[in-house]
Write a structure and sequence with these properties.
The protein is of the alpha/beta class. 30% of the residues lie in helices and 26% in strands. Strands 5-4-1-8-9-10-11-12-13 form a nine-stranded mixed β-sheet, sandwiched between helices. A hairpin with a 5-residue loop joins β6 (90-96) and β7 (102-107). α1 (39-50) crosses α7, α5 (181-188) packs across α6 (194-204) and α7 (243-256) packs antiparallel against α8 (261-276). The longest helix is centred in the last third of the chain and has 16 residues, at 261-276. The two termini are 30 Å apart. 48% of the residues are buried. It binds alpha-D-ribofuranose (RIB).
């Protein structure tokens, strides 16, 4: 069984700030750092560090994306399905406040240049039973889902960042949804407590497994009538960027390696806690050996 992550690769420009800049305000930042990032790249790195062989597909700019590819290759991600295009690599402008919280502005760049032609070529490498992992930062996601369904791949969707395009995708083919509270609300079109949202998303997509992350309130995994709740591991928060990506990579990585959902959820939660205690997106993601100390 192979694992394909078709997702974004970004250069994260991270500005440490006292508070998030307000409308009409001009403000100096305290520090500026550049990190590898992108929800796709972060999740591939988490998958690889969890111990899974992962193929990443997507696109970077010819002139500025090489360091992202090198980083992925160094942790064992297969990068041969990533195109190098004559455009800019995607980037993010991230404000990180004193509490380690962030707000993120994206420029899609090469991530939005994924074409059906590229998708067709990539999909030739995968077959029935292989996993496909998707976020919502590249073009042609609906088409990728259609093609993966035709191949009978297992489809994991983390619809982040949430926008109206999500509703144009063939969501009925998704096998696993990995959602935060806002995404769950948008997906089921209703408000509610964590448990209510879990039920509602699950009622809308009865054949899918639903994973709901609720920050300090932990996370839920629901498969039919089976529900698991996982608490968070408490740490001092330095930077929450990529915590969700680390969780997703470790959860799917664990399931692919035969862990029970309960163990995979526990390890995903541990890995996310470690990521929160460190600075940056991709560089904050721990190796599996580091989870034991948690
Ligand atoms: O989830 C964190 C990521 O979101 C950042 O690395 C940034 O690039 C955006 O894609």
């Amino acid at each position: 069984m192979k694992v394909l992550n078709y997702g974004s690769l970004n250069i994260d420009n991270v500005y440490s700030v006292d508070h998030f800049v307000r409308s009409g305000e001009t403000m100096s930042s305290i520090q500026m750092e550049i990190f590898p990032g992108g929800k796709g790249l972060n999740q591939s790195i988490a998958l690889a560090k969890s111990g899974v062989q992962v193929w990443h597909a997507g696109a970077v700019g010819k002139s500025d994306g090489d360091f992202l590819l090198e980083l992925m290759e160094n942790v064992g991600v297969h990068i041969e399905l990533i195109s190098k295009l004559p455009v800019k690599t995607g980037h993010a402008i991230i404000q990180r406040n004193r509490k380690g919280q962030n707000c993120i502005l994206l420029f899609g760049g090469a991530n939005q240049q994924v074409t059906r032609e590229q998708v067709d070529k990539v999909m030739e490498q995968f077959s029935e039973g292989d996993f496909l992992i998707l976020q919502n930062e590249i073009s042609e996601i609906g088409y990728i889902i259609e093609k993966a369904h035709e191949k009978k791949m297992k489809i994991v969707l983390n619809p982040s960042p949430m926008d109206e395009k999500i509703f144009t995708y063939p969501l009925r083919y998704v096998d696993y949804f990995i959602l935060n509270e806002i995404e769950a609300k948008d997906l089921c079109g209703q408000d509610g407590t964590g448990e209510e949202l879990l039920e509602r998303v699950s009622a809308k997509f009865p054949s899918a497994k639903v994973v709901l992350t609720l920050g300090e309130d932990g996370s839920f995994y629901k498969d039919g009538n089976m529900i698991i709740h996982q608490s968070v591991f408490k740490v001092d928060t330095v930077d929450t960027t990529a915590a969700g990506d680390t969780f997703t990579g470790y959860l799917i990585g664990g399931l692919v390696q035969g862990e029970t959902p309960k163990i995979a959820m526990e390890n995903a939660s541990k890995a996310a806690a470690i990521a929160v205690s460190r600075s940056g997106a991709a560089p904050s993601i721990p190796y599996r050996s580091e989870l034991d100390a948690q």
